[in-house]
Every structure is written in C-alpha cells, then in structure tokens.
Amino acid sequence: MHLGTSRPATKTRELSRRSLLLGLPLLLAACQGASSRVRVAGLGSYASATPNYASAYAPVRDGGFNLPAIPYQEFDPQYLRQTVRYYTAEEPGTIIVDPRSKFLYLVQPGGQAIRYGIGVGRAGFAWSGDATIRFKREWPKWFPPDEMIARDPKLEKYRNGQDGGPRNPIGARGLYLWQGNVDTLYRIHGTNQPRSIGTNASSGCIRMWQQDIIDLYDRVNVGAKVVVLS
Questions:
Q1: How many CB atoms within 10 Å of residue 16?
Q2: Which of 126, 205, 214, 229 is catalytic?
Q3: Is 31 annotated in the active site?
C-alpha cells in the first residue's frame, strides 16, 4: 500500500500487500484501456481565475489538530489546486488519478476538472483500473505492514495501529478503494511530508497535501467512481 496500510473499523482483516501484488495481473487484465478514455486539452489552460492560494493553503485546525500552512510559493505551480479544461467520457464526480503525471482530477461538468498535485510511491504504480470509494475516514489509523516492522523494529508498537494525528503518515483523510467486495489496498490519503508532492516518494499510494485531501474528501461521496490510469 503506502507507508503502511490503514484499515477501517468495519473490516475484518486486510489482504496482505504480497497478496495484492500476486493478483495484479488479473486486475490489470480486467482494466486494460483505462488510459485511452481520457484526453486533456491544455493542462496550463485554466478554466477559471487563479484560486486564492493564501487562503486555500493557510493553517488549518481540524479534528483537534493544527495543520501548518503549505508554503505554496516554493512549489511548481502546476501542482497547486486549480480548475483546468479536461475532456473525458467519465461522469462529473469521478476521480481520475494519473500517477505518472502526478495529478489527480475530480471531474466537473462542462469539460472541466479540479486538478490536484499528488505524490506517488511504489504502491502508487502497482495497481490501475476502476474502483469505487467504499469508505471515507477522517484521521485514520495507520497499520505498518509486517515487512516494514521487520526493517524497523521500533514500529512494532504500531502493529495494532497508530492513532490518527499529525505524525501519522496517512494524514488527515483517507479514501479506500474497492472493486466490488475486494479491497484493492489502494488509498488516496494525506501526508505529513508535504515536499513529497510532485515526486516519486520512497513508499506510499497516492498522497496529497493535507489541505487538498480535506478539500477532495468534502467534495466526493462514498460510492464515487475512481479511475487509476496505468
């Protein structure tokens, strides 16, 4: 998954990361052609006025925690939240993740989308296809996988989960992607490492700035379709 896995309280037990990787050929075979359904016209051609980034990325008090401001002036502006022209056959409300370009799109009516910058770890390239958001969680727990605990025994104390909070690598929100009754172990989540956005992080699924994952979380519903491009 990402730095570890985060599992909702209603689940009995998540599949192991190894099991997911073994099942990837079947998943990919069922989802060929996902990338051909999307065409972008002018990623730099904005469909609306430039957002007020000083407000969008200001410090946030959320869930009893203080989140620092994002120093947005220090990042490539293409990764800042913005509305762009985006042509796709997918319905408004669909999330489209482009791991290689480091963008996540929330499809809007009229050939537009809200585009967010993302960071991608190894697990972010390990799965592609169509899924739905089965669960949404605020400040979810983090469960480091066994192989991570083996590399770093200090993480043993989190085997049963690290409570949500600013030090938790899952961040302020988590969106859990499922195919039918199968957990893909693929997550869209926040991060406590803001400088990983726009990069290939050492580990993780799809990570977003805390302010951006909160914004996305408030815009999408459980059951929303997610397309992860190959």
A1: 15
A2: 205
A3: no
Per-residue pLDDT reduced to its tens digit, 55-77: 999 999 999 999 999 999 999 99
The pTM of the full predicted model, rounded to 2 decimals, is 0.77
Closest Cα to residue 149, out of 26, 46, 16? Answer: 16
The whole-number average pLDDT for the span 81-100 is 96
Tell me which of 1.10.3720.10, 2.40.440.10, 3.40.50.2300, 3.30.300.130 is the CATH number of domain 17-228.
2.40.440.10
* Interacting residues of 59 by C-beta distance below 8 A, sequence separation 6+: 66, 67, 68, 69
* Catalytic option among 2, 7, 102, 189: 189
User: Region 177-201: what's the mean pLDDT?
Assistant: 92
Q: Is 189 a catalytic residue?
A: yes
CB proximity list for 199: less than 8 A, separation 6 or greater: 102, 119, 120
Give the DSSP H or E segment for 222: none
